[in-house]
Prior knowledge:
Layout: E1 4-9, H1 16-26, E2 43-49, E3 52-58, H2 66-75, E4 78-84, H3 91-102, E5 107-112, H4 121-131, E6 135-138, E7 140-142, E8 148-150, E9 155-160, E10 163-166, H5 175-190, H6 194-203, H7 208-220, E11 224-229, H8 238-248, E12 263-272, E13 276-285, E14 288-289, E15 292-295, E16 301-304, E17 307-311, E18 314-318, E19 320-321, E20 326-330, E21 340-342, E22 360-366, H9 369-385, E23 390-393, E24 400-404, H10 407-419, E25 425-428, E26 435-438, E27 442-451, E28 458-468, E29 475-479, H11 491-502, E30 515-523, H12 531-548, E31 551-565, H13 569-578, E32 582-589, E33 592-600, H14 607-615, E34 620-630, H15 633-649
Parallel strand pairs: 1-3, 1-4, 4-5, 5-11, 6-11, 29-30
Antiparallel strand pairs: 2-3, 7-8, 8-9, 9-10, 12-13, 12-21, 13-20, 14-19, 15-16, 17-18, 22-24, 22-25, 23-24, 26-31, 27-28, 28-30, 31-33, 31-34, 32-33
Helix pairs in contact: 5-6, 5-7, 11-12
Amino acid sequence: MRPIVIALLGQTQAGKTQLAQSLCKLLGEPIKNTKLEPTTELRVYRFNYQNMPFYLLDTPGDENFVGEVLWALKVADLAILVSDSTQPIKYHVKRLFEYAKKEGVPMMVFVNKVDHEKSVWAQNICDLQDELEIIQTPVVYGFESGSFVDLIQKKAFKTEAQKVIYLDTLPSGSEQRISTLWENLMEVSAEGKDEYIEKYLETGELSPEEILDGLREGMISLKVAPVFVGSSLTGLNLPLFLHYLYQLAPGKDAEPEKDVTPLGYVFKTLYDPYAGKLSFARLYKGELTTDQGVFLPEGKQEKYTQVFTIKGDSLEQTKVGKAGEIIVLPKVEGLQTGDTFSTKPLSQVLPKPEMPEPMLYLALIPETKADEDKISSAIAKLKEEDPSLIFYRHPETRELLIGGLGQMHLEHAIKVLKDKYGVKVKTKTPTVPYRETIKKPVQSVIYRHKKQTGGRGQFAEVHFHVFPLERGKGFEFVETLSGMNVPRNFVPAVEKGVREAMEKGLLAGYPVVDVKVQFYDGKSHEVDSSDLAFKIAAFHCFKKALEQANPVLLEPYYEYEIYVPDETVGDVVGDLNSRRGRVLSIDKEGKVTKIRALAPLAEMLEYVLSLNGITGGRGYFKSRFSHYEEAPPFIAENIIAKAKESKAEA
């Protein structure tokens, strides 16, 4: 039988970690880290049941860390949605379901905390049915008396000494409800295979084995999600849940491919303070023994000496990693999260999940020279551990930017930089990359550069016509010299001088764009003229032209696709209008609404915080650069004033 890898999904504090630990303890597996605080990174657990390895990938419940969920789903055979029956269902749960569906991962539902005094588990099941576009059918159901019924066997049961004991009688007054649920379960199961449909129509019932087989087929086709109820804290109903988890696990009867070239996939990288770099991988084919080498996607071979597997929540050294298992390779520096690897040059590369786009950026400023020296190495490691983070040096502002899915995501990353890698940073809102341009053409701008210092002097004179260009055209340099007033070998120096002058405009020191410079005449000296002289003359001639050409400030506009619940559309549009945004379209997409809008970047730097407030954390957006527009006078005046203040302070 093939090992089964299960991704545990659910909102924060649903009980995912506790479920993983309780299942391990139920089967005698050791748990060293028993903390039950909300997780921010993927954790791996393993237990054996009926001689079959089960791996549990415990994922964070906060939407800020959804990147970890996507990596878990990439290697999972099955997803278990853990639902907290004491809390309303958050919108994030629906997105988790959609991620699993996109990856083609079958799903089961475990409604947790059903023995809690605040539990409304029956309503929770109904709410899940409304929110998730999949047939959910209870397999284990409870009643107000505290009794539970196994609907596959159509029997009440109790658990004693971790064993399921079926009872002879059903809970009093529950017969009609149980009959309805049982018939619904059979109808859903019958849809799994044509032969079961025929039998159900003829006889009105299916055997327990046929119900299980039909459910499994429905799960594999992503049409059905069996529902179980219990408690990860008290262990209520966990033995029966474990039994059916084993029975329903897709692909459990498939034989692993042993005698083939190994093929693995890294889904998690962790830098341990003592063990160093650890690469967590799913081994899909073959067997991996110690002291070998693995080939990476770019063709490079990396050596390794040890192979580890998981026991409970700890690493355990092994001599061979087997097909289907999750293994850990230590200190293989070339292995990155998302890498496919093999012991021979790769003939196939498995795809990486598409990470969500960052919705919030901050600029990082190392506090000391020592922090500055260490930050590049720390960022490289942090990026390996969490590929959903974005780091880059802005080409214009030269600020080091970090991008993530929200404020908590970035705060956590900055905390990791400090606590784990010893790098302290200050943060600030990123500088907006404004531009400057001109609104009117100027003719016959002349500048003469002349310098005499005793020996050979400097002389150059340039004549320009300068024109505004259509927005987005950039820069155009045209030489229309006639005669020999200026030797043509000086033309490149003139263009270079103009380009250098364009790097800082007159208004606020931002780059100048969308201009055309016509170099039509000039003067030279056969001894004192040089490339340097003409470059200096061109630099000042262009600056002189800017003063006369009505310079204006441009601000970057981005196009946004914003996904929100229908009932919040009005508030979201109103908020966009207050940010000088322009709504382009509003379209219905499934159960949400997509708003397309243009808005200035300066107004949207912390937009995710407002969007979360308006939508209760249910909204999200994508963005991309669109174009530059002239900033309104009141905006431009403020930016120019701040630029002058900064220059004066410097």
